[in-house]
Write the structure tokens for this entry.
Amino acid sequence: MLKIGLTGGIGSGKTMVSKIFAEKGYKIFNSDEIAKMIIKNDYSVKNSIINFFGTNSYIGDDLNSRYISEIIYSDKVKLNYLNNLVHPMVFHQFEKFLKSNLNSKILVESAILFESNFYKMLDDNILLISPKADRISRIIKRDNINRSEIEKIMSVQWSDKKKISLATYVIENINFAETSMQILSLISKIELLSEKK
């Protein structure tokens, strides 16, 4: 079983690259989406979040994302609390995912692949990097949030320099067509190396 990690800061293009892997037959484990599902559906997690962040944490069954974001992206201690609460459960879901996809090629997409130590469970890890201005313009188009909110999120994420030292491969995503070609070439390379092991 081949297990590849994919990470990059907000707006680096992870979703686009995941789609290329899916087209090449990889099963995608999106850890950020799994985390959102746990936060929405797990009763004990919801209780812990409400007890820690207050009763405004949820609107009905849904996390009050704007309220929580304002807190965690201004306070690393509170961000770490949330990550430490949710990520052991994400790892548990990943173990179940592996058992149900035993003969598959796997891609793990995670914004905090290195910060959470998820990368240690995988064979190779790809880091996407992009100029800050490109990332900001992509996020504004995609999420309809303002520049100051984006920069607050970026400020708590690890720098590309720190991530590069842990990545197996680094891809600079500026031009979509060029990045696609690089990713397809990299998939072939990784699969060839995997066969030789």
